[in-house]
């Protein structure tokens, strides 16, 4: 499948899902955050769901965690952000209340209603490798209950696509204190992704 075919399929998927109201998140969203990037991306990053800035702008990973992810991609991996694909398990912001003061992981019924869109994106893009960011994305895609601290940096597979889990950028920011090893551990994970891309 060439890039124009992938682009057309992704656009059709967006048009058929952007008004989705299959779970309660649709009722309180500002924007449906479909995902963005190169339809022919060699690497795909998957988070759990949009946050406040993402919900306002309609783009994934544009808040503080997004700035860190962009730095990891562009400064660490030496790849323009536009050349990867970034998405989430759910496409609308999961919040504790309708006023959106605090984010939360998506609930099972929300994942059940929405995650098929992400799986279709993966099928269309078919990246060389996937990086799952944090517990919800890793547990969903790899169908595991093992936590991210044990899963991070390990090579797994979704169908025939290699998957390397690592910490979510927001977790890295929350744990950015003297003596923390979170940044170093994340960089070790990303180096495995870089090595795989270089060899394949």
Q: Please give the share of residues in helix.
A: 40-55%
User: What separation lies between the terminal Cα atoms?
Assistant: 18 Å
* Subunit arrangement of the protein: single chain
State the helix count: 8
Strand order of the largest sheet: 1-3-2-4-6-5
SSE topology string: HEEHHEHEHHEEHH
Characterization of this structure:
The longest helix is centred in the middle third of the chain and has 18 residues, at 108-125. This protein has a 6-stranded mixed sheet, sandwiched between helices. Helix 1 (3-17) packs antiparallel against helix 4. The chain is globular. It has 8 helices and 6 strands; from the N terminus they run αββααβαβααββαα. By secondary structure, it is an alpha/beta fold. A hairpin with a 2-residue loop joins strand 5 and strand 6. The model has no long low-confidence stretch (mean pLDDT 94).
In short:
With 200 residues, the chain is α/β, with parallel strands linked by helices.
Blueprint of the fold:
Elements: H1 3-17, E1 36-37, E2 43-47, H2 52-57, H3 64-76, E3 85-88, H4 108-125, E4 129-133, H5 135-142, H6 148-151, E5 156-158, E6 161-166, H7 169-174, H8 182-199
Helix pairs in contact: 1-4
């Amino acid at each position: 499948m060439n890039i124009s075919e992938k682009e057309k399929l992704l656009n059709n998927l967006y048009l058929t899902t952007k008004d989705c109201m299959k779970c309660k998140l649709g009722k309180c969203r500002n924007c449906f955050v479909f995902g963005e990037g190169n339809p022919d991306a060699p690497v795909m990053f998957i988070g759990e769901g949009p946050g406040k800035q993402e919900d306002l702008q309609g783009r994934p990973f544009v808040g503080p965690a997004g700035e860190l992810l962009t730095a990891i991609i562009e400064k660490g991996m030496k790849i323009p952000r536009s050349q990867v694909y970034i998405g989430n398990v759910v496409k609308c912001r999961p919040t504790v209340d309708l006023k959106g003061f605090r984010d939360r992981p998506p609930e099972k019924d929300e994942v059940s209603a929405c995650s098929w869109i992400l799986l279709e994106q993966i099928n269309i893009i078919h990246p060389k490798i996937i990086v799952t960011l944090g517990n919800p994305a890793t547990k969903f895609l790899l169908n595991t209950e093992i936590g991210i601290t044990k899963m991070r940096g390990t090579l797994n597979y979704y169908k025939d696509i290699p998957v390397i889990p690592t910490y979510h950028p927001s977790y890295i920011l929350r744990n950015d204190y003297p003596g923390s090893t979170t940044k170093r551990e994340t960089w070790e994970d990303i180096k495995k992704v870089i090595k795989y891309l270089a060899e394949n």
